[in-house]
Amino acid sequence: MMENPPITSLTIEGEAQWLRLKRQIEWTEGFSLILLFSDQPQVVDVFRRRLADIYKLRVTRLRTPRFERPEQLLTQALPLLLEKLPTPAIVNAPIWLDLTSSTGQDKEWEEARRRFYQRLNENREVLRTRLRPVVIILPAKERFVFRELAPDLWAIRDITLATSAWIPRDDSPVVEKQAPSTDSPKPFSFRQQKAIDEWERVRQRQRGRDVLIVGDRAFKAAYKARQLEVARKISGEMEALARKLVEQVGETPESLRDLSISLNNTASIAKAQGDLEAATRQYGEAVGIYRSLLERFPAMSGLRAELDNVESQYRSVAPR
Description:
Layout: H1 12-27, E1 32-38, H2 41-54, H3 72-82, E2 95-98, H4 107-122, H5 124-128, E3 133-139, H6 143-149, H7 151-156, E4 159-162, H8 190-205, H9 209-224, H10 228-249, H11 253-272, H12 276-296, H13 303-317
Helix pairs in contact: 1-12, 8-9, 9-10, 9-11, 10-11, 11-12, 12-13
């Protein structure tokens, strides 16, 4: 009997969250803790296989230990995470520790996971000295349990992902091209031209965040005048620069917000030019980043309104 081929594709939001996970692991130069809460084994399997493929041709392979008995979480899983790395060759070799495979079994596994959370929390400082990314996949229902039993680990985590049903249905409609906007381009007003000129001047002299701020004003000016090719050029440069800044300074609230704004701009142009597939992908990535920011920094001014706006745009282009 032939087995079904493994699932390889994800929904737009799933792809956005995969990219977030992939970026964090690839950009990490030392320790990084990623918590993935899931009751979607197919989604977890797609993430694992994709990450394993990335490391196939590298010296440092993805490590995916599996355990058959609950007591092995303390006798094998914990020592594995805390072991002293013998050579620099395996520094940065990610560990993929899936603790969800036994969620449907007896209470022994549940108790073992709780003890594991507590013991790992007690050894958090040792864990941080092991220079490698650690991805721990946990049962979705134990998110608050983990937070309560391992508060120090929760505080030092880099990413928290909660998966949804991100496997496309067989009957999912194909995203079709939409007719591009027929709005005719208009001449720039004095204020709009001034914004464009300022962007041209600043981008020639600087490569930092100031270019993004000026670029956003120029983009809005070009978009309002329906000068879509000019707006597309600006938004493309903004997105590339925003991604570079995230790589340089890390996933700070400021750098991630700038990237979200840039993605929103590129998606708006794709939508206006009729490319709904690209618009859906870019809006989806922006939504994922905004949700992560809102979870980590709920008091950040204006974040909820920005997320609501991008989610509305995402729903306007995403397949139903």
